[in-house]
C-alpha cells in the first residue's frame, strides 16, 4: 500500500504503474489492498536501551496492546492509534530513548519471500522509495536476514 502526495495525480499514477510493471507487478485500484492492513501505533526501543521486563510492564501499563521481543535489535510495542501518543509520551517521560515511533499500517499476515522473488521485491521497494511523490510504502513481505544480506552483496 502506497501513501503519496502529488500535484498531478494522473502523472504520478502513470509513473508508479510503470515502476510496478517493470518489476513484475501491477498497480491495483484505490483501496484494493487496504483490508490486508490494520492501523496501529508502533514504537521501537533498542534492546541495549532498556530491560525487557521493565519496558514490557511499563508499555502495557501505559495502554499498549502488544509487546514483542523477537527482533534481534529492538523491542516492538504496538498500540491502538488513539493510545499511541499516551504510550509514546509515557515512555519518553521515563527517559526511554525511542528508535522509532509512528502510527502506521501493520500487515495482518506476512508472505515469506526468498531468492529471486526477494530480490525483485527489494528492487521494487527501492524504485518506489526513489519516486518523489511516494511518501511511504506499507508491505506484507518477510525476507530473512540471510537473504537480505545476499541481496545486498550482489
Give your account of this protein's structure:
By secondary structure, the protein is of the alpha+beta class. Helices cover 38% and strands 26% of the residues. It is built from five helices and eight strands. The strands form three sheets. A four-stranded antiparallel sheet has the order 3-4-2-5, covered by helices on one side. Strands 1-7 form a two-stranded antiparallel sheet. A hairpin with a 5-residue loop joins strand 3 and strand 4. The radius of gyration is 18 Å and the shape is globular. The mean pLDDT is 93.
| Rg of Cα set | 18 Å
Helix content: 25-40%
Order of helices and strands: EHEHEEHEEHEEH
Computed structural class: alpha+beta
Low-pLDDT stretches are none
Distance between the termini: 27 Å
Q: Give the overall pLDDT as a whole number.
A: 93
> What spatial form do the alpha-carbon principal axes imply?
globular
Beta strands, count? 8
Q: Bin the strand percentage.
A: 25-35%
DSSP helical segment count: 5
Task: Pick out its properties.
154 residues, alpha+beta, 4-stranded antiparallel sheet, 26% strand
Describe the secondary structure blueprint for this structure.
Blueprint lengths: L1 E3 L4 H14 L14 E10 L5 H11 L3 E3 L5 E6 L4 H10 L6 E8 L3 E3 L1 H16 L3 E4 L3 E3 L1 H8 L2
Parallel strand pairs: 6-8
Antiparallel strand pairs: 1-7, 2-4, 2-5, 3-4
